[in-house]
Structure formats: structure tokens, C-alpha cells
Amino acid sequence: MAEMDMGLAPQGKKNGKKRKKRKKQSIWNSIVSGLFPCKGDSTNEILRKIVFLAALIVLIVAVVLIAAHYLQYSRLGSQMAVDSDGQILATESYIVDLKNKAPTQEQIQQLPQGTINEEYASLYNENKDFIGWLSVPGTNIDYPVMQTDNNDDYLHTNFNKEYEFSGTLFADYRGPIGPDEMPHNTVIYGHNMLYKYQFSALMNFKRDINFLKLSPVIDFNTLYSNNKYKIFSVFVTNISTEHGEVFDYTGTNYFNSRSEFYDFVLECGDRSYYDMGVDVEYGDEFLTLSTCDQDTGLDLRLVVVARKVRPNENPEVDVERISEKDSVKFFETYYEIFGQLWNGRTWDTSLVKGLDEYIGENGLEDKPEDYEES
To answer: Per the count of CB atoms within 10 A, which of 32, 233, 315, 325 is most buried?
Structure first.
């Protein structure tokens, strides 16, 4: 009677009829049916679950990659060298120790014929692929450079030839470096790693003209010579034809004619963010640093091109002459996305000896007034 007074039906009965018991789902089954398409789901429900699962997979992969990179950077950070001021360098300590270690006479004797930099004997003894040391004063770019007969060996391999995602700086194999051998254009590759490793500092050249003014000269000393290079171009370019015409800066290791030289310099000048005020002439040797550009989300390359300081030339760059250009050459996809258009050549072509004559003879004029609205 008490149950009836409270408005409750007797247990197991409703309006005098027996009620069917619902089969309880386990928590696991509930999760599975909630996440994965099941028999009886509507089309919209199936699509919702598929989209959710795809997003979940992407999230999990991203978390795993971030965690892996974080662990790698933590490990790298613990192995970095420290300078006399207590500042952490970007170069691993064991490599710095090898560089600073006085070589033995036996190690010196094992150096390739024509070597002048005997202080690199310890590095060469450790790894015969070592061909030089690259540094950009004012940045943390201060690394050994390797070279083999391909461009894959050091893409994800450290100095000790062990797997490491950040890899090691390496020179393009198509421009071999030797005692009496140096390509017209030495191309060096390095990853644009998060935080501060490898070639990440090159992004500052693109983003900040004042940073560029602080570091306009690159040092690249090989086993066989000591070299300084003055930067004359900083640009971003595509590497896939789906984004537009490709400038093959990596495949140009030798200039077989003046026209090839001038065509290369024209592209570097037109594409550069800056007019560097650095003179160039046929016969100059170039150094090209190449890394990934991570500012746009496209698969692009950030490129820094410098020319070798000539014998008896002042190695300093007149930074007061460095200026941002009004017109920068990009590629079709960039124009479509960002709306920035090429408005003609505005840099000082007279800085390249003989270039103005070449432009005139070949009809390569590209003046800003040609782009003005009539």
C-alpha cells in the first residue's frame, strides 16, 4: 500500500504488465559503439563518427611527434657545449672537443694531400666524410660540414653516423670539394629545426633586416682553404612545379658560360628580400645555404647565397647599403595566397659587372614602369 500511495508501481510491473529488462552494455561496448560506426547508425551518425575518428588519429599522431621531438631536443640540449661565458652552444660538446683537441702527428699524417688546416685532423680522423667547418658570426650556426657521394647519408644521421632526425650539415655531392677542386657554387644543406638547432637561425635573415646587418658574412673553412663569403641574396622559393616555375638553385654547381652565371645571379637578385649592396662578377665563387621555410605552411626553401671574398679584398660589408626591396619575385601559388605581386626589378644590377649589358642584349629588361597602370 505504501508503494501505491507514493505513485510507484510494484517492482517489475507497470499497469499490471511485466516490464522487459534492458540488457546492460559494458563500459567498453559503450565506448566502441560511441566511437565506431555500428549497425543501425544513421548516415549522419556514421559520418560524424568517421570525422571524429580521423581528427582523433591526427591528434594522437601530433602528440606522439611533439613528444618525440621534445625528447630529442631535451637529449640534444643536455649534450650541447658551453662557452667560456656559460652560454649553451648549438654544437654538441663531443664535436667541439674534437675540434679543440690538439691532433696527434699520426692523425695529421692521415689527412688528405693538400690539407692546410691541420687543426681539423681530430675531426677528420673521427669521420673521413668531414670536409670543413661552417660558421655564421652573430648566430649559433657553428657546425662541421660533411660530404659523400650522395645527398642522403647525413639527412638524418649525426657526426658519428648514428640515426638522429636533426641530421648534420652536408655539402651537395655534385660539387665535390678537394685540394684543387671547389665548385663554382657550393650548396650546403641543413634542417630548419624547432628551437635553435642546425639552420634555424637563417630564418632571422628573412624576418629581420637588422639581424642580417649584424651577420652579413659567412665563414666556411675547408680542409684545404679558409674562406669568407659576403651575403648578396636571401630568398624563399618553391621546389615543386605545382606551385609554379622552379628555380633550380641546388643543381647549379658549375657555370659553363657567362650566360648561365648571369641567369643565376639575376634570379638570386630578383628573388632576394634585400638589395645587399655587394658587388659580383663572373668568376666569383658562391656559397649557398639551403633549409626549409616554415612560415607559410607550404613546402618551400629558404636560401642564402653569398659570394667568396676575393684575395686582398676587405671582408667587411657596408651594412648601410643593405635595404629592403620594393619588389620581390616569388611564384604563382605565393601570389595567389598572399596577393603580393612582382612589380619589376628594383635592385641595383650595376653591382654585377657586365650584367646590364647582358640584360640589354637578351631583352631581359623588367622595369617597374612596365607594371604601372595606364
So the answer is: 233
User: Phi first, then psi: what are they for 32, rounded to 5°?
Assistant: -60, -45
Q: Are 217 and 229 in contact (CB under 8 A)?
A: yes
Cα gap 347→353, rounded to integer Å:
14
Residue type, 118: E
Closest CA to 169 of 195, 196, 148, 189: 189
Provide the mean pLDDT of the chain.
Answer: 85
155 closest CA partner among 291, 282, 18, 38? 291
Question: With helix as H, strand as E and coil as C, how does the chain read?
Answer: CHHHHCCCCCCCEECCEECCCCCCCCHHHHHHHHHCCCCCCCHHHHHHHHHHHHHHHHHHHHHHHHHHHHHHHHHHHHHEEECCCCCEEEEEHHHHHHHHCCCCHHHHHCCCCCCCCHHHHHHHHHCCCEEEEEECCCCCCEEEEECCCCCCCCCCECCCCCECCCCCCEECCCCCCECCECCCEEEEECCECCCCCECHHHHHHHHCHHHHHHCCEEEEEECCCCCEEEEEEEEEEECCHHHCCCCCCCCCCCCCCHHHHHHHHHHHHHHCCEECCCCECCCCCEEEEEEEECCCCCCEEEEEEEEECCCCCCCCCCHHHCEECCCCCCCHHHHHHHCCCCCCCCCCHHHECCHHHHHHHCCCCCCHHHHCCC
> Percentage of the chain with pLDDT > 70?
81
pLDDT at 90: 65
Q: What span, in angstroms and rounded, lies between the C-alpha atoms of 130 and 148?
A: 9
* Mean pLDDT score, 198-227: 95
Rg for the chain (alpha carbons), in Å?
A: 30
Would you say 164 and 158 are in contact if contact means Cβ atoms under 8 Å apart?
A: yes
User: How many other β-carbons are positioned within 10 Å of the β-carbon of residue 94?
Assistant: 14
Condensed to tens digits (0 to 9), the pLDDT of residues 320-352 reads 999 999 999 999 999 999 888 899 999 999 999
pLDDT at 275 over 50: yes
**CA-to-CA distance for 103 and 97, rounded, in angstroms?**
11
CB 249 within 8 A of CB 267: yes
